[in-house]
Write a structure and sequence with these properties.
There is one protein chain. This protein is α+β, with helices and mostly antiparallel strands. It is built from two helices and two strands; from the N terminus they run H-E-E-H. Strands 1-2 form a two-stranded antiparallel ribbon. The N and C termini lie far apart (56 Å).
């Protein structure tokens, strides 16, 4: 199968407690380690997305920076 460069697809099974296991290849590719916090975004039309793990810090840094600017 010829996959587009840089694009991947995996499957995951949801367990009884609603947990999923991120496939090993994906964890290695994206340097996801035990204890990491991931951001999940949901859209009823498009589904669930898990952006790169640095997005979480970047997003909140931007939000809090904007809030600080409003208070000054």
């Amino acid at each position: 199968m010829n996959e587009p460069k840089g694009l991947y697809a995996w499957t995951a099974t949801v367990g009884e407690k609603g947990q999923i296991v991120i496939p090993k290849q994906a964890r290695e590719l994206f340097a996801i380690k035990p204890g990491d916090t991931l951001l999940l975004l949901g859209d009823l039309q498009r589904g669930i997305a898990i952006p790169p793990k640095g997005t979480f810090s970047s997003l909140f840094g931007t939000v809090f920076q904007e809030e600080g600017a409003k208070e000054e």
